[in-house]
Design goal:
This protein has 334 residues and is of the alpha/beta class. The protein is built from nine helices and ten strands. It has helices spanning 2-17, 106-115, 135-149, 151-154, 168-178, 238-243, 251-255, 283-295, 317-333; strands spanning 53-61, 71-77, 84-90, 119-123, 156-166, 184-187, 190-193, 210-214, 270-275, 300-305. A hairpin with a 2-residue loop joins strand 6 (184-187) and strand 7. The radius of gyration is 18 Å and the shape is globular.
Amino acid sequence: MKRNLLVIAAVMASMSCFAQFPGFGGGMPPMGGGMPGFAGLGGDQSSQTQAEYSEKFADIDYVGDDQVFHKLDIYLPKEVKDKYPVVVHIYGSAWGSNSSKGMADINTICAALLKAGYAVVTPNHRAIADAKWPAQINDIKAVIRFIRGNADKYKFDTSFIATSGFSSGGHLASTCALSNGVKVAKLGKAEYDIEGSLGAYTDQSSNVNAFVNWSGSTEVLHMDCGNAMQFGGPGNSPEEQILGMPKEGNEDNFMLLSPSGYLDKDDVPGYIFHGDKDFVVASCVNQFLYDQMQKYGVESYIVHEPEGGHGMGMYSEENLKKMTDFLDDVRTRK
């Protein structure tokens, strides 16, 4: 009981600090203890910095079905140029919101990306209540193809496209990047069409050049590590809800929900940021992903923020600069 009271107090404190909160609509499922969607907190937006941009294109349908979960926003940097490298930044919601693109760390991560000269694309995607996996990664792959198919219209320099995300968005950003070139994923009896066939640009590639993962709920078979909270109860965690099956006896399916399930030596670089005081997604979850990337010889970096929580205390100028320096370096070398 004491732990539950402490958790509720922490939730209330966090909510009071968050200028952006994905809300409980859009199909966000209730988590354990009747506390709806706490894992969906979109990161600390208390910064007074405001994202600066020259143009914003809102509510663009990237699939063509006029569904809210298939809309995206585009921000172009304040400094006007002929074209811009692109970062797709994905909001966090425990895969539970289908309409939180306007709350995707706009004044922290996205502001830093825009200042560094990157066009920023913030997409919605289908939630657990809309469809099971791999619908969510199919949506993000469709976003990448849309970007390539509309490069001239929106001044995209498609020679460099990266993914970024917070929490479940970090999971999607990592999985999208590490599954470059995968059409259908198979492991044991598990099989998923990862690429999908959404939208008008199926002739375009969905490959990206790098990823950044902020507090991502990545390695779903290791979500019980550390001292993080347990959401949903046995057999009903967000990762079990998105697959529609329990972990026990279905480990292959959960490996294909995890970015490490796609690792090989030719994968693109990734940078991971995680708070050691994150009690929603323990930092050991992403430590496992980093260790696996190192094992495969994939370029990878990790920052453990000693006082960082789930979004809170993560977006220092130093960390944001590490992100943009990393992307600049990968882009320059490419």
